[in-house]
Description:
Elements: H1 2-22, E1 27-33, E2 39-45, H2 57-65, H3 72-77, E3 82-84, E4 110-112, H4 114-118, H5 122-127, H6 132-154, H7 157-168, H8 175-180
Parallel strand pairs: 3-4
Antiparallel strand pairs: 1-2
Amino acid sequence: MVILVIGVGFLLLVIAIxxxxxxxxxxxxxxxxxxxxxxxxxxxxxxxxxxxxKTSFWGRMLRKTKLDELPQLLNILKGEMTFxxxxxxxxxxxxxxxxxxxxxxxxxxxxxxxxxxxxRNEEHILAQQPNPQLYNDEVIWPDKVRINKWYAQNRTISMxxxxxxxxxxxxxxxxxxxxxxx
Length: 182
């Protein structure tokens, strides 16, 4: 009970700081594509100031620590997401999957997954590209599809526990080696 009270208190403090920092209610919502291609509203903590569209120090810290993902616990409670699975994408990606790649849509999206671990620093990778959108569309997105398709075909409870561990404790983890061992 004490741990729950501390956890809720921590969450409320983070939300309050985020609201003050972004001069908003502290939340960001966006339509994402979920299981079976159905769209749903994902919840996150706002990391961009709505007027300036710039990320503050607090917003960068939330993204780096992945604390901006905490409100997705509501998506889990609503049955739209799970802890481990392919990350839900905006329209124009997952909803456009074809053929055997559509197996990914059979799964509930997750807060974390194998592709999330491989691309933990996706923002940094994209920031170094001359054309980030093109790099995402031609390199990162196809690789995420490959990884998520493999996950959909090979997932186990043990694998999910390992993914959760490496998400919470970001020590060195090679997704390609992990996939090759299975």
